[in-house]
Amino acid sequence: MKKNSYLKEHPKSSVSKALETTRERLTRLKLDGWVQIKEEDRTLKIERDEEALKEASYLDGCYAIKTDLEENEADTNLVHERYKDLTEVEKAFRDCKTVNLEVRPVYVRREDSTRGHVFVVMLAYMIIRRLRRAWKNFDLTVEEGLAQLTTICSMEVTIKGQKASCQKIPRPRQQSHELLEALQIKLPEVLPSRNIRVVTRKKLAVRRKSQ
Predict the structure, then answer these.
(1) Which superkingdom, per the lineage (predicted)?
(2) pLDDT in tens, 59-107
């Protein structure tokens, strides 16, 4: 043991300090339940409690969950399920902050605007969670699934000599069809033409310049 070598080479060193440091290390390593450290003639000796070790070994590979709830308020299964739900909470915060939604940076300043911004992000997360559950049997991520759905398009159909027109939605690709089916969404074959110009954020600046 390095501590014993140090104590032997330095006669004026503090044995109690070495003993305290070693005990703290045993505690950090969670060995203090069945390993004891003692001092005899400026020598630290480790003793192992075989009975305590045997008792501790029964929990190998297991973990314990502690709660302040009364037994009549929540049974063992409920406490375990709520503990597992913590992983979903952590994943939700991670998704909202960095992965998909990027709640920051926040460009608004008023309290109600900031609350509205965060509210929209949470609504978006609920949609992502719904998609994740519906597509759990597909070998793709939510991002990949949404990218696949962007291949769905519409064609404007006009009748020669007439002003009437409509939007025809071609049959989606097989994978897109399966993704929509998992969400229980059925696309209409035809949509009425509204003559509405849709502008994305990327094209908004160009449209403003043209006006």
Answers:
(1) Bacteria
(2) 777 777 888 888 788 888 888 888 888 877 787 777 777 666 777 777 7
* In the chain, where the domains are located: 2-57, 76-134, 147-210
Angle at 45 between CA 42 and CA 49, to 5 degrees: 150
Q: Tokens representing 166?
A: 């409509």
Hey, how many other C-beta atoms are within 10 angstroms of the C-beta on 14?
A: 11
Nearest Cα neighbor of 67 from 78, 56, 55, 51 is: 78
Strand partners, 158: 165
Residue 153 in contact with residue 142, Cβ under 8 Å? no
CB 117 within 8 Å of CB 108: yes
How far apart, in whole angstroms, are the C-alpha atoms of residue 191 and residue 168? Answer: 7
The residue assigned the tokens 């014993």 is 4
Q: What is the pLDDT of residues 135-156, one digit of tens each?
A: 999 999 888 998 999 988 888 8
Q: Where are the alpha helices (DSSP H) in the chain?
A: 2-9, 15-28, 50-57, 76-94, 111-134, 142-149, 174-182, 201-210
d(CA 1, CA 18): 12
